[in-house]
Amino acid sequence: MKVLVSDALAESGIEKLRAIPDFEVEVNTSLTHEELCQIIKEYDALVIRSATKVTREVIENADRLKVIARAGIGLDNVDISAATKRGIVVMNTPEGNVITTAEHTIAMLMALSRNIPQATQSMKAGKWEKKKFRGKEVFNKTLGIIGIGRIGRVVADRAKGLKMNVIAFDPYIGPETINKLGVEAVTLEELLARADYITVHTPMTQETRNLINKDAFRKMKRGVFIINCARGGIVNEQDLYDAIQEGIVAGAALDVFVEEPPKDHPLLALDKVIATPHLGASTDEAQENVALAVADQVIDYLLHGTIRNAVNAPAIDGEVLATLWPYLQLAEKLGSLVQQITPGAPEEISVEYVGEVCSVKDLKPLTISVLKGILTPMLGEQVNFVNAPVHAKERGIRVTESTRTEAEDFTNLISIYMKTSKDENLVAGTIFGKKDVRLVRINDFRLEAAMEGHLVLIYNIDTPGTIGAIGTCLGRHNINISMMDVGQVLERGQNIIFLRTDTPVPENVVQELLSLENVNIVQILEL
Length: 527
Description:
The longest helix has 24 residues, at 318-341. This protein starts with a strand and ends with a strand. It has four domains: 2-96 and 285-304, Rossmann fold (3-Layer(aba) Sandwich), CATH 3.40.50.720; 97-275, Rossmann fold (3-Layer(aba) Sandwich); 315-443, CATH 3.30.1330.90; 453-526, ACT domain (Alpha-Beta Plaits). It has a seven-stranded parallel β-sheet with strand order 8-7-6-9-10-11-12, with helices on both faces. By secondary structure, the chain is an alpha/beta fold. It contains 17 helices and 22 strands. Catalyzes the reversible oxidation of 3-phospho-D-glycerate to 3-phosphonooxypyruvate, the first step of the phosphorylated L-serine biosynthesis pathway. Also catalyzes the reversible oxidation of 2-hydroxyglutarate to 2-oxoglutarate. Belongs to the D-isomer specific 2-hydroxyacid dehydrogenase family.
């Protein structure tokens, strides 16, 4: 079997792969996209980091490819959907970078507080500017952490060791769970108003993109420090520049940018900004950890069929996987759907399996798929089929499952009820034929709809002309409707309209839809 390593990987990982007699390992870190498309058909496994772009075109040319393995967390450089359709397992190594990224955050915080990079540069220029680089103590200052997952928790622990007051906001973790960490749970508005330092530790999602923007900066105290070692784009770079120029932000420490490497970036021209070239995971220990982990995972899968840390397949036998595959897809999509329509931190998840699906000997992989679907919009690539239950437990989410062998309307059915700190919803879906995934219920509304692509869920009063007005509004903005399904509760005079559009519906169009008579709620979904 042939293994291609197309990005820089610690030698220990390469040696472990080469130690397998059945493997022929090639390391080529200078391939162009066109060259990768040409040669990928020869390989059974592709090992990458962040540089290689595994596009749909690459995957379509991968005749033999069985696994794409990422040494690290982020998978935004892999077309996971295309890989899944081809039956290619996509793996990452989510645990290897936690400590090193958290430590880098603390290092950036201290360097920012004491002007260490600027003072070093001054000294090397032959100057002695002691008064110019007077800094700030972090003792007794308030650190606001946005996103208190695994990295955020380590940052909190280290900051408490520095005797900082730590507050945190995370919409997907209940206040009780955060408070048990010795951290004060607050709202985002309260965090912005109170924090002397603000650090972000969230994945890049639709909700977190430009989360720290001009409106957020206006709510901060003057003299705040901003740290971003998570993902470029969570902090709006132009708005950060303006906030520094206006004196709201006293300094910023950035390890990540929207475009990497940044070119002629105005932030880098400011003395109050310190920056590193995405070094959050760049320690000897972290590189060694992820290299060995990814090598072990590739070996286990190619030799034994054992799947670990896959984002698109659970760790089960290949024969069982083939049988379960449609149900796994249904469970994950239903989980993602119920999370996207239900605001607040998940507290309780109940999964019911009805009919033929109950004949599956072990339903645990399906429940894990539900959890992965629910957690992925919150955590991005950090969550996979192995660690989803752990993430749920860490967030204090209660998970139950039940079965009912006697089917009613459908031969098989998966229902998910989710209660959060703010709301509760129930969704249900089935498999039509052998593999067609369908949504058949949202709360009391019955419908039959595919779950894929750019989706819009609209709650409206059931009156003549409403559906026409919605279509006219979208058409006016050149947004084509490729699917529409309507669910009714006649006794309440209410509808839900489930649409799929060829292109995403932007926020200004959402507001226009909400302004229509009899339209109550508009939710944008991605599945």
